[in-house]
Write a structure and sequence with these properties.
heterodimer; A: 420 residues; alpha/beta; Aspartate Aminotransferase, domain 1; Aspartate Aminotransferase, domain 2; 7-stranded mixed beta sheet; 4-stranded antiparallel beta sheet; 15 helices; globular; B: 145 residues; alpha+beta; 3-stranded antiparallel beta sheet; 6 helices; 3 strands; 19% strand; EC 2.8.1.7 (chain A); Aminotrans_V_dom (chain A); pyridoxal phosphate binding (chain A)
Chain lengths: 420, 145
């Protein structure tokens, strides 16, 4: 039934960029959505319409445009709250990207402005991440550890590309204050099982954050059901514009946290020597926010909802099942990450024996118009774990087809011919 | 079919059959350069003789065809030349690479390195081509230091 209702050809018509031609008359085969997704007309139009007819600053202008713009901005917040099952719309904070959301939370720990016991962090305390993290979920915690003298620890990754939770009870212990891991790996495609880790986190009284940048765009995510404390994700990977990310946090924790950036609109009252702060979410939204971007992201979640996140997930599962089958028939190709479509998303990273990913990506692009990402995908420690400097990554989304995967395979055979 | 012009036969040949690869003794200076965006790396040793002659340039590394072929071509062009000559090749090669494909290469100076002219049109790959040459320049300066 779902297979019939999901019409990828109809969906592709919503994405103008997919019909463009590359120099030399090559068609575009876009397999880089894990890096950033393309935008449907509905998002482009919503942003254009806002700028053409409703634009003004938000939250501070009393005129008609000011109130229309504010309404659109706040309406986007409500849409996103509903999209991820946030119990309250005030728990949705707009940031610049997922990195800012992660930094915001990291900044609240070991901060003299935060007297809440749960955020106290110093020598002897521990922060836990994993070896499969994007740099944005590594570096903020490294900086925090350096600032406070706390110890940074991490879950290892198995040869199959799964989180190794064998040492969970030792790794997450009474010294642990925060555990922050990826919901879905941007390299391996692995979807991590949250509940066993969360159960241990609760046992020791720590907090838990998920980097959901790669999961929210691709599967239904309900933050209340997940039960964690913080979730970060980003707009541009889920059909929305760049320049906007989201932090969801439990209200009671957000209330306890100190402001991250200071500036306009995050205050209640300001004197020359001190200030009091607005309630959440505005406490964390200093300065003019990404207004048009929020409107665009609101339109993106409307679009995703109209297609259905379950349907999108099922489509990507069909695609990745196909991709894993045909890619593993390419001689010398090794998939880095789970080799079956179980508990994994539509991101497939691989190596080709004897050929550097930069050469693979260059030939794919220039001969076939196939856009993949090559390099360490902002996850260098994970590549070090597998003893490789880089991989080639194809990341799939709702608008991709099996014909595009066939094109990738043809491209890889050609790459092998050039370097053979 | 743009990139294949970047992958000149000569570059592919050097990539598949690198010349002078492997670190050798004796040497005056050893340097290690990396390209943080793609993980290409090269370790290079330089042995100079009195009178400014380059006795040996030995290297090891890993990375894409462009970065590794560049090291192989560099070995051929530098070994047996004078420091002065090789530094003018470095300068001309750098000028070519940073020219966004608009610079007419001086073949007399560059020799086989002219095969890399096509790389200049790909800003993301220029650093790959320059890696070994920057390492060489660094090693020469340290040898003379």
């Amino acid at each position: 039934m779902t297979q019939q209702s999901f019409d990828v050809e109809r969906i592709r018509k919503d994405f103008p960029i997919l019909t463009r031609e590359l120099p030399g008359g090559r068609p575009l085969v876009y397999l880089d959505s894990g890096n950033s997704s393309q935008k449907p007309t509905q998002v482009i139009e919503a942003m254009r319409e806002h700028m053409a007819s409703h634009y003004a600053n938000v939250g501070r202008a009393l005129h008609v445009l000011g109130s229309e713009s504010t309404e659109a901005y706040e309406d986007a917040r409500s849409k996103i709250a509903a999209f991820v099952g946030a119990p309250s719309r005030d728990e949705v904070i707009f940031t610049k990207n997922a990195s800012e959301a992660l930094n915001l939370v990291a900044y609240s720990f070991g901060n003299p402005n935060n007297t809440d016991e749960r955020f106290r962090l110093g020598p002897g305390d521990e922060i836990v991440i994993s070896e499969m993290e994007h740099h944005s979920n590594i570096v903020p915690w490294q900086l925090l550890a350096q600032r406070t003298g706390a110890t940074l620890r991490w879950f290892p990754v198995t040869d199959e590309g799964r989180l190794d939770v064998g040492g969970l009870d030792e790794l997450v212990n009474e010294r642990t204050k925060i555990v922050s891991i990826a919901h879905q790996s941007n390299v391996l495609g692995t979807v991590n099982s949250v509940s066993p880790i969360l159960a241990r986190v609760r046992q020791v009284g720590a907090l838990m954050m998920l980097d959901a940048s790669q999961s929210v765009p691709h599967q239904p995510v309900d933050v209340a059901e997940l039960g964690v404390d913080f979730v970060a994700f980003t707009g541009h990977k889920m059909l929305g514009p760049s320049g906007i990310g989201v932090l969801w946090g439990r209200r009671e924790l957000l209330d306890a946290m100190p402001p991250f950036l200071g500036g306009g609109e995050m205050i209640e009252a300001v004197w020359m020597d001190h200030s009091t702060f607005a309630p959440v979410p505005h406490k964390f939204e200093a300065g003019t926010p990404p207004i048009v971007e929020a409107v665009g992201l609101g339109a993106a979640v409307d679009y995703l909802t109209s297609i259905g996140m379950e349907e999108i997930k099922a489509h990507e599962k069909r695609l990745v099942t196909y991709a894993l089958d045909v890619l593993q028939e390419v001689p010398g190709l090794t998939v880095i990450g789970p080799r079956t479509a179980i508990a994994r998303g539509g991101t497939v990273s691989f190596t080709l024996e004897g050929i550097h990913p930069h050469d693979v990506g260059q030939i794919l692009d220039d001969v076939y118009g196939i856009a993949v990402r090559v390099g360490h995908h902002c996850a260098r420690p994970l590549h070090l774990r597998f003893g490789i400097p880089a991989t080639t990554r194809a990341s799939l989304y709702l608008y991709n087809t099996t014909a595009e995967i066939d094109a990738l395979v043809r491209g890889l055979h050609h790459v092998q011919k050039v370097f053979g | 079919m743009i990139a294949e012009s970047m992958y000149q036969e000569l570059i592919l040949e050097h990539y598949k059959h690198p010349q002078g690869r492997g670190l050798r003794e004796p040497f005056d200076a050893e340097v290690h350069h990396v390209n943080p965006t793609c993980g290409d790396e090269v370790t290079m040793r330089v042995k100079l003789a009195d009178g400014g002659k380059v006795l040996d340039v030995s290297y090891d590394g890993q990375g894409c065809s462009i970065s590794q072929a560049a090291a192989s071509v560099l070995h051929e062009l530098t070994t047996g030349s004078t420091v002065e000559e090789t530094l003018s090749v470095v300068d001309e090669f750098t000028r070519l690479m940073q020219g966004r494909g608009q610079v007419e290469p001086d073949e007399d100076v560059l020799g086989d390195a002219v095969a890399f002219a096509g790389v200049a049109k790909f800003p993301a790959r220029v650093k790959c081509a320059l890696l070994a040459w920057m390492a060489y320049k660094d090693a020469v300066i340290r040898s003379q230091g």
